[in-house]
Design a protein that fits this description.
Layout lengths: L3 E6 L2 E5 L4 E3 L4 E2 L3 E5 L5 E8 L6 E4 L2 E2 L2 H18 L4 E8 L9 H16 L6 H11 L11 E5 L8 E6 L6 E7 L9 H8 L5 H21 L2 H20 L15 H15 L5 E4 L5 E6 L3 H15 L2 E5 L6 E5 L1
Parallel strand pairs: 7-9
Antiparallel strand pairs: 1-6, 1-16, 2-5, 3-4, 5-10, 6-9, 7-8, 10-11, 12-14, 12-15, 13-14
Helix pairs in contact: 1-2, 2-3, 5-6
Bound molecules: ligand 2P0.
Length: about 325
């Protein structure tokens, strides 16, 4: 029987980054990563399959999706159809409550919510691990938006061994993550291109060699709620990833892949000044210019007072999140 299912998921932010793919077709990464789900951003997706549809219909934020997006969603629906042994086409209606290209990866929450809604709509009851594997096939980092809270994606060696699991529930640590948005412009280089170029950096081998230790440091500090250790390790890790991007071989057009803008560097220096002045704040940066600030909840008011002075000059705005749950079903009929 066909159902109409609405599922939701939060995007996640990596504190140990996924950068480079061992298998681009299956999104098997070259390293394991660690993330936290961002409670103040969400994708909500409704899926229904019908024998009357001739093709998949994809709506994104209330309008028909562009061809590339529709094609990527249809390929993902094919994976779900194959799992269920079914052939009907689907109607997919997906909305994000946060701006596209805000430096928050909407592909993570989108493919997590789509995997859950589409599999349920065809009557499948996948385990968390199976859902994480399915979501990963749509977009690598989406596998981390399936489990609750603080999540580790084990790189694995093949499709069955590359999935995400919870390392701590959202209430484990009352952190605040402030996403400072400088630019709503879509980035010039997609993260898929960034992944593909990662291995051309002469420092990529050094990054991989150091990652097991980074992962253990970040995860141990997370479990111990040791904020200075956690913060410094995640900040160093973000800069390490960007060093790989900046030293990638992008051909004759440029010397490397630069996601940062002048305001990115300005905020990095500000974060270091805050720490010298006694405000414990650390940053991470994804494949874009925007900066995500970590602090403990007790420091959030002090950080917001600082940002209230700073952001108007930088023409930036902020979204504040707490750690959040994984993907969930909102309704089923
Ligand atoms: C991450 N990023 O760990 C890293 C850090 C961006 C910077 O994973 O090609 O959208 O869909 O597997 O998951 C963004 O890449 O890439 C990303 P695909 P995805 O969050």
């Amino acid at each position: 029987m066909n159902r109409i299912v609405t599922a939701a998921a939060h995007p996640n932010l990596a504190v140990v980054k996924y950068w480079g793919k061992a298998d681009p077709r299956l999104n098997i990464p070259t390293n394991s990563s660690l993330s936290v789900n961002l409670g103040s951003a969400r994708t909500t997706t409704t899926v229904s399959f019908s024998p009357d549809l001739e093709q998949d219909v994809v709506r994104l934020n209330g309008a028909a999706a562009d061809d590339r997006t529709a094609e990527r969603v249809a390929r993902h629906l094919d994976r779900v159809r194959r799992l269920a042994g079914r052939t009907e086409r689907a109607l997919v209606d997906s909305t994000n409550d946060f701006p596209a290209a805000a430096g928050i990866a909407s592909s993570a929450s989108a493919f997590a919510a789509l995997s859950l809604a589409a599999s349920r709509a065809l009557g499948l009851r996948l385990s968390e691990r199976e859902l994480s594997i399915l979501a990963r096939q749509g977009s690598g980092s989406a596998c981390r938006s399936i489990p609750d809270g603080f999540v580790r994606w084990e790189a694995g060696q093949d499709d069955a061994s590359s999935y995400a699991y919870q390392v701590a529930p959202p209430e484990h640590w009352d952190l605040r993550i402030t996403t400072v948005i400088f630019s709503d412009q879509p980035k010039e280089v997609s993260s898929s291109d960034g992944h593909a170029l990662a291995q051309t950096s002469p420092f990529f081998g050094a990054r991989l060699a150091g990652l097991p230790r980074t992962l253990e440091t970040v995860q141990a500090a997370l479990l111990a709620r040791d904020f200075p250790r956690f913060g410094l390790a995640l900040e160093r890790e973000a800069v390490n990833m960007h060093a790989i991007a900046m030293t990638a071989d992008v051909g004759a057009a440029a010397s490397g892949l630069y996601y940062w803008q002048a305001t990115t560097m300005q905020l990095i220096q500000q974060v270091q000044a805050w720490r010298r002045a006694g405000l414990p704040v650390y940053f991470t940066i994804d494949a874009g210019p925007n900066v995500h600030l970590f602090c403990e909840a007790a420091q959030q008011a002090a950080l917001e007072a600082e940002l209230a002075r700073l952001l108007p000059d930088m023409r930036a705005r902020a979204i504040v999140s707490a750690p959040a749950r994984g993907a969930w079903v909102m309704s089923e009929a």
